[in-house]
Specification:
It is a single chain. α1 packs across α4 (about 120-125) and α3 runs antiparallel to α5. The strands form two sheets. Strands 5-4-1-6-8-7-9 form a seven-stranded mixed β-sheet, with helices on both faces. Strands 2-3 form a two-stranded antiparallel sheet. The chain contains six helices and nine strands. It is about 25% helix and about 20% strand. The termini are far apart. It has about 200 residues and is of the alpha/beta class. β7 and β8 form a beta hairpin. It has helices at about 40-50, 60-70, 85-100, 120-125, 155-160, 170-175, and strands spanning about 10-15, 30-35, 35, 55-60, 75-80, 105-110, 135-140, 145-150, 180-185.
Length: about 200
């Protein structure tokens, strides 16, 4: 099956497995923001930013997320090893995208606990795709952040280095000269919801 005449398929990959250890063990995906779970807001950002295909990696409270969140059309992937950290979720997510019916050209990775990053940042990073070797990241005040786009030709190496809670950090550090940075500081805020103090960002 070829798609040479069509736009490249950049799929959204949402890492939403975190257990909220510093939030009393509340799964981050189910934290409420504007009356709905964070995972719904993150999926909406990916969709409205141009990702028609969205895979969501679940871990902590996966059954509750399935029951409580409205995620129509998403591919929901369980990571049984979510407690090992973000690296395992990234590996599981990339493996899921490799199994997609349509050939995916790139994965645009976002995190469920960053509600300040919306569709505008997603669209900017997605627009910087050039080939299956692309490596793109949003930047804020000159610092690399999310979302991050990995062309499909890079997935094997990214997955191989995704261990513990580092995710793709080491891979990105080793390939910093290949990264296209896209400034998103005027349209998004890259804060994380990690601690009780961070809950002030939720509405």
């Amino acid at each position: 099956m070829t798609r040479e005449s069509e736009e490249p398929l950049v799929a959204g990959l949402l890492l939403a497995a975190g257990g909220g250890r510093r939030l009393g063990g509340r799964p981050k995906a189910l934290l409420l923001h504007r009356g709905r779970p964070l995972v719904e807001h993150a999926v909406r950002a990916l969709r409205e930013g141009g990702c028609e295909v969205v895979h969501v990696v679940l871990g902590a409270g996966a059954d509750r997320v399935r029951a409580q969140a409205r995620l129509p059309g998403c591919v929901l992937v369980d990571n049984p090893d979510w407690a090992e950290g973000m690296g395992s979720s990234l590996r599981v997510g990339l493996a899921s995208l490799r199994a997609e019916v349509l050939p995916v050209d790139a994965a645009l990775v976002s995190l469920v606990d960053q509600p300040g990053i919306g569709p505008e940042a997603v669209a900017r990073v997605r627009a910087a795709y050039r080939s299956r070797d692309s490596l793109v990241a949003a930047s804020y005040g000159g610092r690399r952040g999310h979302p991050v786009l990995f062309g499909a030709d890079r997935w094997a190496a990214v997955a191989a280095g995704a261990v513990g809670d580092q995710g793709a950090r080491e891979y990105l550090r080793a390939h910093r000269d290949a990264i296209t940075l896209v400034d998103c500081s005027d349209v998004a805020e890259p804060y994380d919801i990690d601690t009780e103090a961070d809950l002030v960002h939720l509405e």
